Fold:
Amino acid sequence: MAQVDDAVVTVLEKRLLDPARLEKLLAQLLERSAGADVRCKHDIATLRIERTAAETAIQRLFESFEAGLVDPKDKDLKKRLASHQDRRAALSQEIDLIERQCGDKLDRIDCKTIAVFADGLKKKLTDPDRPGLRKNYVQASVQRS
Structure:
């Protein structure tokens, strides 16, 4: 049974943990990530335009008030001002959230990191003190094939 386990793990190591295969998978992941980055930047730009429009509307209301064109006791003025201020605050929060989610992707994975990962996993799979890990890895790999 141990020989069969060794043979299966060896085949899986060669196929699944091959650095070239892992690099290809990572390249696909980074490509999707780059697409997400473009969408994030577009969304942030759109939200900033909307926030600027809300700020402009607030500024115009104040200018109308200062010029005496609007009665300060006007209920609609207060509602519109509050509406624009709420919209501006919501847009600012949404921009902050998207910026945190997108973040800088400066810590990209390189070929060396892939090799270290593959070697580390190979060592864990062949560790006699971790038979459960080996069994679970083999089962998960075989089920996906």
Remarks:
- The two ends are 22 Å apart (CA to CA).
